[in-house]
Amino acid sequence: MAVLDSKVPKGPLAEKWSKHKNDIRLVNPANKRNIDVIVVGTGLAGASASATLAELGYNVKTFCYQDSPRRAHSIAAQGGVNAAKNYQGDGDSVYRLFYDTIKGGDYRSREANVHRLAEVSTNIIDQCVAQGVPFAREYGGLLDNRSFGGVQVSRTFYAKGQTGQQLLLGAYSAMNRQIQRGKIKSYTRHEMMDLVLVDGKARGIIARNLVTGEIERHGAHAVVLATGGYGNVFFLSTYCMGANVMAAWRAHRRGALFANPCFTQIHPTCIPVSGDHQSKLTLMSESLRNDGRIWVPKKLEDAQAIREGKLKPTQIAEEDRDYYLERRYPAFGNLVPRDVASRAAKERCDAGYGVNKTGEAVYLDFDSAIMRYGREKANTMGLKDADDKTVRELGEKIVEAKYGNLFQMYEKIVDENPYKTPMKIYPAVHYAMGGLWVDYNLMTTIPGCYAAGEANFSDHGANRLGASALMQGLADGYFVLPYTIGDYLAEDIQTGAIDTNSAAFDEAEKAVKEKLERLMKGSGQHSVDYYHKKLGKIMWNKCGMSRNAKELQEAIEEIAALRKDFYENVRVTGSADSKNQELEKAGRVADFLELGELFALDALNRNESCGGHFREEYQTEDGEALRDDESFRYVAAWEYKGEPKDAVLHKEELEYENIELKTRSYK
Ligand SMILES: Cc1cc2nc3c(=O)[nH]c(=O)nc-3n(C[C@H](O)[C@H](O)[C@H](O)COP(=O)(O)OP(=O)(O)OC[C@H]3O[C@@H](n4cnc5c(N)ncnc54)[C@H](O)[C@@H]3O)c2cc1C
């Protein structure tokens, strides 16, 4: 059994990271030149890690399945990145960011990691500004901030609704500098298919060249997996279509424990599902909740009339609207955390107040904000008696400046003008808090195999607060891993290049080829998508926004049966030794079919509700999540044992020495 030693340094919380950096071993610059590191994934976590490791002097090889690092899923991030800069002077501090993140995650994350995250958050902004990331600025030239859910300060730095894109361009430029120097060798359109262990240490990967179909061996002294999250196990999600769990799952099969798979975030503000033909959902950034008010009609008959197209939302009088978040959570209002907002939307829709044809949508309304901003602007222009039309026009311009690209995206998809009529939104799968278990150094349970960004089980506990994924991925890549990996690599300064002509590489390559052949051998009855959609439906219906023991048990059995059927009957056209996108998809869905089962098992094991994991059996009288700190204050880390249902549970007990465990309240 793998031993779960979190390696959290001793000493006062606020000094742990500094002390650790002083205590761990270093690799001197001349020796770094003799050490190779593989970084799989070049999204924000991987690009920042590889650029920094190469700058330090290591020889880095990067891998991604897209045709360019610039196309990683990170590019989709809209709303912003948190940092405890307190530029607003509104009471923010490292401690508050730490506290908000622990509370936001419903007390299921590691104190020391979260404190470190809050500490380095400020460095991230400086680093990115130095790279030229065009964060939004206030009139006077200072960086601007906005608020995100679950907090009462403004600490989110943003670049309109394209923060991920701008941050990725910064990290990608830093990577490119190293590519040009010859310190990074970039392998695009390459998919990692297996991790290679030599004498129990991660020493390389087997990758498939997605253009030629060739299977390649790559050796290194350490392997970093920065391969993103697994939310596409639900088929429909806000992730990019290619996002998958393959790299993390294959490492899991080789011995890396997989932590908290059932902790997945459902985001409250996405464009609702429109039908069975859909393969992708679109996020409407949380930043919109700064100004948008969420409501449904107060009267069931109004909701019904809206669904039937007989009434428009703009015809519902103010007193007949239920701003249910403001009503239930007056202290945080529309800015409650995502899990709370998602469940509240579901509750209203389940009660019959949904406002689209399927009854699964609520309104996000900007009318009040437009009029408020418009009046402010009219006042500053000296137009004290401006009429409503003028005020509205002025207000719309301000809202456009803040969220214009999001409004445009909404209008393109839904064909309704959100300046004139409220947006319709509904929760959708958005982020995976679970992932590969890592210690304080970001090392998995396989020596030399690290995980960064969304691929690790992260610092977000059972729920991720908005704008904290970018913070974590960039903290891991720019500021944590480059230090901690040296401690491990210090042992390898005399190892020499890793020989890929070894029995371990032979075995791993053979296993990969056999797996590909197996996928090609299905009877051909159903497409890969057919299975992915079926899996997604099981996941959404039985492991989604609310879960119960009976349905989770059913999900475990249904997924196992679906997996069997998949291998027997899947249709993969083309051949394994050439470009074959259907085969790529099949490999990813095969892994989702295992992860999905472990996900359900993990949710079944956790007999409590916390954050995004809501077990119907465990709730307060008014429908809030009911934690059981006595029995479940642990990270559930699963060891692979063949079939997912046979996985063995390891626990990392979470100590709260610096923060009081409280019932989480946003009222
Ligand atoms: C629509 C949307 C908006 C978001 N907005 C925000 C926001 O405003 N603020 C915030 O903090 N967070 C936001 N998030 C979350 C955040 O964007 C992600 O969590 C984060 O970008 C993940 O970064 P990453 O580097 O860990 O992974 P990714 O960006 O997903 O990168 C994964 C990389 O791994 C590679 N890869 C994967 N598997 C393999 C394999 N087997 N072989 C080779 N390469 C592989 C991919 O090619 C890619 O390069 C948003 C998410 C979504 C979906």
Topology, pairings included?
Blueprint: H1 16-23, H2 29-32, E1 36-40, H3 44-56, E2 59-63, E3 81-82, H4 94-104, H5 111-131, E4 156-157, H6 163-181, E5 184-187, E6 190-198, E7 201-209, E8 215-219, E9 222-225, H7 246-253, E10 258-259, E11 264-270, E12 293-297, H8 300-307, E13 321-322, H9 324-328, H10 338-353, E14 362-365, H11 367-380, H12 388-414, E15 423-432, E16 435-436, E17 449-451, H13 469-489, H14 503-520, H15 528-543, H16 549-569, H17 581-605, H18 629-632, E18 634-639, E19 648-653
Parallel strand pairs: 1-2, 1-9, 2-5, 9-17
Antiparallel strand pairs: 3-4, 6-7, 7-8, 10-16, 10-18, 11-15, 12-13, 12-14, 14-15, 18-19
Description:
This protein has 667 residues and is of the alpha+beta class. 39% of the residues lie in helices and 14% in strands. It contains 18 helices and 19 strands. The strands form five sheets. It has a five-stranded parallel β-sheet with strand order 5-2-1-9-17, with helices on both faces. A five-stranded antiparallel β-sheet has the order 11-15-14-12-13. A hairpin with a 5-residue loop joins strand 7 and strand 8. Helix 3 packs parallel to helix 13, helix 5 crosses helix 13 and helix 16 packs antiparallel against helix 17. The longest helix has 27 residues. The mean pLDDT is 96. Bound molecules: flavin-adenine dinucleotide. The site of flavin-adenine dinucleotide has 46 residues, from helix 3, helix 6, strand 6, helix 7 and strand 15.
